[in-house]
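Support case: user asked for a sample of complex input and structure output to validate their parser. Sending the pair below.
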Amino acid sequence: MRTFLRLQVLLWLLVLTFVPTCALFAADEPAVASEPEDDALSTGDNAWMLASSALVLMMTAPGLAMFYGGLVRKKNVLGVMMQCFFLMGLMSVLWAVVGYSFAFGGEGGWSWFSFEYFAMTGVGSEWNEAAGRPVTPMYDASIPLLTHMVFQGMFFIITPALICGAFAERMKFSTMAVFCIIWGLFVYCPLCHWVWDGGPLALGVEGAVAGGALDFAGGTVVHISSGSSALVCALLIGNRLGFGKDPMPPHNLTYTAMGAAMLWVGWFGFNAGSALSAGGSASGAFVATHLSAAAGAIAWPIMEWITRGKPSILGACSGAVAGLVCITPACGFVLPMPAIIMGLAAGVVCFYACTTLKAKLGYDDALDAFGVHGIGGTLGAVLTGVFATKHVYDGYGGGASLGLAEGNASLIIGQIVAVIITLVFSMGVTFVILKILDATMGLRVSQESEVRGLDLSEHGEEGYIFL
Amino acid sequence: MRTFLRLQVLLWLLVLTFVPTCALFAADEPAVASEPEDDALSTGDNAWMLASSALVLMMTAPGLAMFYGGLVRKKNVLGVMMQCFFLMGLMSVLWAVVGYSFAFGGEGGWSWFSFEYFAMTGVGSEWNEAAGRPVTPMYDASIPLLTHMVFQGMFFIITPALICGAFAERMKFSTMAVFCIIWGLFVYCPLCHWVWDGGPLALGVEGAVAGGALDFAGGTVVHISSGSSALVCALLIGNRLGFGKDPMPPHNLTYTAMGAAMLWVGWFGFNAGSALSAGGSASGAFVATHLSAAAGAIAWPIMEWITRGKPSILGACSGAVAGLVCITPACGFVLPMPAIIMGLAAGVVCFYACTTLKAKLGYDDALDAFGVHGIGGTLGAVLTGVFATKHVYDGYGGGASLGLAEGNASLIIGQIVAVIITLVFSMGVTFVILKILDATMGLRVSQESEVRGLDLSEHGEEGYIFL
Amino acid sequence: MRTFLRLQVLLWLLVLTFVPTCALFAADEPAVASEPEDDALSTGDNAWMLASSALVLMMTAPGLAMFYGGLVRKKNVLGVMMQCFFLMGLMSVLWAVVGYSFAFGGEGGWSWFSFEYFAMTGVGSEWNEAAGRPVTPMYDASIPLLTHMVFQGMFFIITPALICGAFAERMKFSTMAVFCIIWGLFVYCPLCHWVWDGGPLALGVEGAVAGGALDFAGGTVVHISSGSSALVCALLIGNRLGFGKDPMPPHNLTYTAMGAAMLWVGWFGFNAGSALSAGGSASGAFVATHLSAAAGAIAWPIMEWITRGKPSILGACSGAVAGLVCITPACGFVLPMPAIIMGLAAGVVCFYACTTLKAKLGYDDALDAFGVHGIGGTLGAVLTGVFATKHVYDGYGGGASLGLAEGNASLIIGQIVAVIITLVFSMGVTFVILKILDATMGLRVSQESEVRGLDLSEHGEEGYIFL
Amino acid sequence: MKKVEAIVRHFKLEDVKNSLTECGIQGMTVTEVRGFGRQKGHTEMYRGTEYAVDFVPKVKIEVVCSDTDLKKLVDAVLKAAQTGQIGDGKIFVSDLHESIRIRTGETGEEAL
Amino acid sequence: MKKVEAIVRHFKLEDVKNSLTECGIQGMTVTEVRGFGRQKGHTEMYRGTEYAVDFVPKVKIEVVCSDTDLKKLVDAVLKAAQTGQIGDGKIFVSDLHESIRIRTGETGEEAL
Amino acid sequence: MKKVEAIVRHFKLEDVKNSLTECGIQGMTVTEVRGFGRQKGHTEMYRGTEYAVDFVPKVKIEVVCSDTDLKKLVDAVLKAAQTGQIGDGKIFVSDLHESIRIRTGETGEEAL
Ligand SMILES: Nc1ncnc2c1ncn2[C@@H]1O[C@H](COP(=O)(O)OP(=O)(O)O)[C@@H](O)[C@H]1O
Ligand SMILES: Nc1ncnc2c1ncn2[C@@H]1O[C@H](COP(=O)(O)OP(=O)(O)O)[C@@H](O)[C@H]1O
Ligand SMILES: Nc1ncnc2c1ncn2[C@@H]1O[C@H](COP(=O)(O)OP(=O)(O)O)[C@@H](O)[C@H]1O
């Protein structure tokens, strides 16, 4: 068993070393003598996009790592932090080798297996004989392809990391890693391609399903996909030992609160960075993001105050995250006040999803990845169809009405269809992946390991040694 | 009692939902067909301002939340973190609905109740028929109004959050929330209007009091106002139970140190962002900020070293914050070396304020909000009158001398007058607000709740569950 | 003894106050009436450089402070955090007064004692009579000298802070401070001058040693210098009491992990900021940095997995840092895929350095400053000579081959020579400094203080009071 | 009166508490301890240095009871805490001289 | 010799310590414990899941004293720790066989 | 049977454990405690407020042994824990009524 594991690991290492080595030589091909297009690079846009990329990485760790880490029991704190941290490594390498190519390479349409950018071909800069200097390929007029690649790569990290909330405290680390690789290539990449690379879910693309949908920063691609997959994970892996019997309170809410704050800060990069520039659109997305988070951060604890007499910091944090999730697809299309409404709605709806609904259904989505990201993302995608406005984004051209609130009903239909496709696709593929992994590697640590905690059993370390 | 509370809460929720809904339709008014002015938008300036806004939010949480959270006793750690976090939600929504309009709307002068930007009217982008695209209103030539609004909104969060240091470990959460709302609208907004929106405290404005004053990033508006209000709070709410008898050491200085470091980092956004652009002024403010913080971070522990034999990390952190506070009004007007002097002065003066002075007077400003922000802010405002120089800012036009060190005595008089007005106004209004709240809601939790700690009694949660 | 200390401290304080005061008047000299050159300032470049400066400060604290703080025993957590925090103050003031002038003032060549920028002369803005406004001196066409100064100043903080990892848990605080001052002026400044200010170690400079070397963001200047000095420190100060006998596990790996994540995020400022602009070069450096960190973050734990059966979070963090160190000299010269190879190599090599090698040699480099920064930096400097490519940087002009992989062997020779010079110089000077300090102040705290822990004995504080 | 000290596994605390309250015990005091015994600890590895962590986290439950309740109580603990694996823990019983309720000053079995 | 174990409220520790030193006690040992008793714990609510936290934080003070000092000592604790509210805690007294000062090897009451 | 409670310095735990296992002891239980005694605590200063921290961190080691092993055991602790400085700690010995191994239900010295 262990030998098998080691072999497997060695294999990976070889592959990981091999692929870039090949690419190294691939990149050594004779440089094309075309005219440089990078004169149009805007340092302002690039400055913002680089800062945004840093902010989005900060969301996964320390952000999500602390947020999730604080919510589990002490014996599993390193387990979840390690999942986040390791994914920062694993998914980034995967993205550079094939992920970016799958997601953003090739033509539109359903198929997503393009090797156009395989191992960063054509992404890095190249000596340009005509210009007499190295030239950086551009994504569009204003930022380098490299910037676009690395910014999008940060999304490829945090999306599977969000799922880890569902199977926290019991999943095998090795299986988690393999799951995230496959999930990334077979769920994230296609969705990303369909929505953001002119695929059949994008608004305004010819032949788009139900006219296509709007998703500014990842309501469908990131949150619905991860949240719904998380539900499948929670169901297939089963409840934690002692769930519903033993108390499993968050072991360090100070971490959770600080993690939530970092998520909030980092989300500015996530959402306003999705403008891919530093103009008015980025400012609008920034404001909408902030106000929705703010509204969520008060709505949830106020619900607690009303129904239970006390507002909690976990409620404020959960509400802020719910507000952030909900505004994600909408932030580049809505005005500030509707952003507040969306945040309030997210706070109230996710509050019920995580308390009443979850309790009724009895599944153990340990850290509420589904309740917050699945439900909040769906709500956000639908409300985008309501509040998107021509005042912010001229989606149909010529200043035609956009959202339901402006009197146009077609967008919301596209939104709902996109949500359904995302839900069905994500959950279906996740189900298949998990079934296969369950049969081959096994999903869950042994009962003994679970009782001892993942920190010791999976990583041989302890979180705190305070004696 | 509890029913009353609930009703109250419900009411708020309604108001909060209602106002934006109105505004939604308000924003739907026919778009003006004016020429777009946003061609002059500088992506570089906007990139820096968006990054700065993110940095300033980071100051409140994790920054201030960790800084303050570490200083209280373990049983109140969530209490102070919750205050910071909840204010991030509450003050932001308030700012969008009326705060920004009060602070930056309408004409100059003493009156500040303008509804010009009520519920973000005229702030968000709007479909522009003439241009055939949505157009973002600009603050001045280079950044959108939205950016200015959200950047200034971050100040509206952290300023009341600073006050929380004074009544930490004993204030009722509900009263704290109501207090901050009223304080924001009746202390912060007018001060902001008077100083930064061409009001009677601004230098160079016709009819300015005593010629007006300089305040680059909030010496008066943020630090003196919050610091002096904090003193009133500490006096009116009274000392913590057992103050002076039981030991009340900081429960987690590692948090305090990390929070202080994040405050330092975030303060670059606060100060250099106050240039509202990314040119030489921002660079100068950045450098002055950094050097003053640095000087404070060594001055305070060296004072401890001399007087007590040991430099402490709490001293280094306190000194850095004192240096940052002190340079805030001055950072855009002084050269690097005077910034070091200001930092050294702040470290030494605030050291005495927090140790000797406080001990003598015997009030319980739990986390030294007055000693650091009140005293440090006052010192900074006065020293701005000394060290401001025409080499950095041409305040009077034509290269006339600015500060006392350059031989001009009129600026420092304006500074001192502005300080006095701010002190009297802030403390007076705070006193009235607290007296009213004391009579209606009560300021303080019950004795039993205080003994148990705010985490459990006000929020029903525990910070750490390490068993 | 104590009186002596106090006197000493007082003296410092005087000097620190005196120098800037002089400078204040120095800066008051009649302004030159030259033409302003700051019209060429790029707000985009400056926006990115200011954000980068903030990011690099964040690397020292909270980043490094948490990373190192988590690795020591609980009783020394404040000790290491204080070292980081205090250095943020001390080194910054030193940099402004003389450091920047030594490092970047004057002509090239071996000598580095220039007082060109002494006490910020000519760095801050100045009233320009011709332009009728204050003018900010520029570093090169696009960013102010002030920005360059503060960005480079952040490096001057973190470099000695890295060394603290070697003598953690036993060094006297006062000696540490004096050591860092001398080391900064006599090791860091010259190296910086030789490599980055057109000195004899820079590629393409006339008379460069062995043709000069490439060091984009500090492989030699920062990592080899600090790492090798760290080894000397560890050897001269001796092992911790009980080393090899008592268990000394990291007391808080959650801090270490979060600190490593912040280092990763901050390193984007360190490396991509070293482009000193926000164009394609910054994007390329950003991507290389991210991918190398990612590769390191998987390589090290996979090595653990293979050799010991379990991947650890400390391994993932160490690997990420190793990858970051290794790519530092190379990030602006290599393509994405070679960056992955360099990260993998760094993960594997540093893993062996910190486990097998260190165990064999038996020195107590408490936090592996040498194993990670010394070894990783050396590896990176050499591999820069292998993978640097004309596709990214036209080092020799005209698109001539650069690295060994492109067929040019001369660069790698320059790299190796630069490494050797850096190693010999840093270790030699460090040895001398330490010997002198050992004879005068003493390097190590008393045995009793070491047993009690530095938090109490050196600073009179406790990290956590959780009772 | 007798004082019973039971050292049990961490995750059995909830069960033991329930089992004790079922058999009528109204009070107990719990302490976090670390135990050394036949059950081996584990090794932790930090950057190549291996540490043997010999002490296993356990929970100590102290209950004072009347001599008559002793057997019932011991049986309750035995039943609830047993897994049959090495490391289940011990029960130590000793005599108590006196017990006093601080609130009222009551002494003896009344005070329990 | 007697060993006195007093389980008291957390925020009474300072008072009890002072009270004990006043009546001449020169040493004691304190442990953090959690108590279960008449005083009910509290419920905590995390995202809709309610946990009953039955165990209340208490402090255990152990003092070894001579038989003659016993009464004085018990009275001192009683006085300092009493609030009259449920949850004030208990005092347990047991016999001690021997006590030794590690530093000197002294035994018996000399060792205290 | 006897119960030995040794309160020792924190950094002596490893030594005492080794010394005990060498003399054949197979089990012990360790608790973090804070001690008050001749050894003075320290003062901590936070922003000008000085706190006297009277309680010094110590470790309590509990070992149950047969009457015959007692002397050997006490000597082992004495030897390993002594530094000769004030604050070395105490050893308290009391009688034990019964001991039971939870896993098997064995009682008496068999249970140790
Ligand atoms: N002689 C002893 N004195 C005090 N505590 C003991 C003694 N022996 C065992 N213990 C405690 O009992 C626990 C369980 O003992 P162990 O030998 O591991 O398992 P088992 O009792 O099932 O054989 C230990 O962790 C320790 O806390
Ligand atoms: N039988 C017992 N054995 C051990 N400890 C007890 C026992 N009964 C009570 N205690 C301890 O005494 C504390 C106070 O007891 P409680 O019943 O809450 O209040 P009171 O003693 O005022 O009635 C409990 O928290 C527990 O730590
Ligand atoms: N009477 C006592 N009862 C319980 N514990 C005591 C008593 N006296 C001392 N101790 C414990 O022994 C430790 C060492 O005692 P101390 O007086 O400081 O040193 P020494 O024993 O060397 O004189 C104390 O910290 C305390 O934990």
